[in-house]
Amino acid sequence: MRKLLFSSLLLFASLVAQAQEEYTIEGKVEGVKEGTLVSLFLLDGNVGSTVAMDSIHNGTFYFKRKAGESGLDILSLMCTRQEGFPPMSLKIYATPNAKIKVTGTNTLIYTWEVNSPVKEQQEYNNFTMDSRDLWDEYQRLVIKEKSCTSETECKILEAKQDSISAIISNRELKLMQKLPISSVWMEKLNKLSMSVKYNPKFSYKEETLALYNRLNEEQKATTIGQAITVNLFPPTVVKEGDDMADADLFDLNGKIYHLEDFKGKYMLLDFWSSGCGPCIMALPEMKEIQEQYKNRLTVISISSDTKSRWKEASTQHEMTWPNLSDLKQTAGLYAKYGVRGIPNYVLISPNGKIMQMWTGYGKGSLKFKMRRYLDTPKHEMSIMQRGNTRIVNYPSITSTNTDILEIKQVELTDTATIVHFNAYYTPKYWIQVSPNAKLVDEKGVSYTLKGAIGITPGEHFFLPESGQAEVSLIFEALPLETKVVNFTEGTAKKDWQINGIKFSK
After folding, report:
1. Which tens digit of pLDDT belongs to each residue from 188-203?
2. According to the 3-state scheme, what is the secondary structure of 123-179?
3. Residue 200 belongs to what domain range?
């Protein structure tokens, strides 16, 4: 009996302890459609994961969760893809035993009121409420933009949003000047520092720097402090042709590595995050190329997640290659390689030179890149004369924005200039050459496209199973004394450019 009583007491104590670790979020809103789905996301570094969902019935929703080990959960409340809502979220800070109440009178979710005992929430609320009128107008504009019918209307709405954002930033700056430094204050400074880095129209750079100068060395050394620092004082970003950037990199057991350790083989750096869908989709293909090229290539994945998130994600995905992190999220190697979108890939030569850098993944794209740069033979430029025709084999070039087209040969005749290309791309995927393609000589004179062999300009051309094809473009005749030309499709960013095509050594 005494044993039974003791066990019961232990169970009761355990249940009480568990209850004390929980927090609740109770919502009471008006002006929202019955059945609207509410999603709760847990934020961890740059990643948010869905942890709970509820539907609004009779104007209410409810969440109960066990608090995380840190003692402070940072959450995001969203009504994703719901009619009448802006694509924005309500930020919520939660601690064990907190009873949080959310109220609202419309679909402007960013400014729903959060009544909470959590000090971080109270501080965050001060910022939001200080500009509530502006945030409400901003949300209305965002909702309206979702249904705009013309480019002109959309641009007008975007301009109004930008104007409101500038005023909000000014208000936040003034409030921060009066407040002590805290975690929420640092989050706001990080947001301002990103505006300094990425928004050329941002008007408050000096004010933001003045706030940064209030930080002590310990605050600057935190993960968010380092992110703020690299936003305000960007490191030198390496580019193709440069020596690789290196750093202390850790595996899951804490062992330190350097990229220098892997020289002697090609390296493929994979900048990834557990919250990036294409990053995860690419893993099976990376496994294939790691196996296929194991004697010549080392794949190295570099995570931008928090340490805990990185470890959790790594248990879910098998990586048979080095899986590392500098534990600086986006403030370390990510900044040195100029990574803005992921997955981001960097191909490095065996002697540590950067060969190629690109962003994004599509099925087969990594195999294409490896075939293109590891399997394609290297050729030397040569020149020969055949009657009145000058033939330049594999002419050297100054620069190009595409690795799809390689100039195999140029024939310069009295009547035409014929450019023969090797085309490389993902097998069975299409490429397209613009009918506006032209050659431009060193004097700026243009020579128009007159015809093509093996491809029809302006139409889709599908690569065969090999991922390689030969096509030719026929242009107006260049003067025989021409030494250098540029190949161009136009001035748009996506238009192919091959510059400095040389016809003499």
Report:
1. 999 999 999 999 989 9
2. HHHHHHHHCHHHHHHHHHHHHHHCCCCCHHHHHHHHHHHHHHHHHHHHHHHHHHHHC
3. 152-232
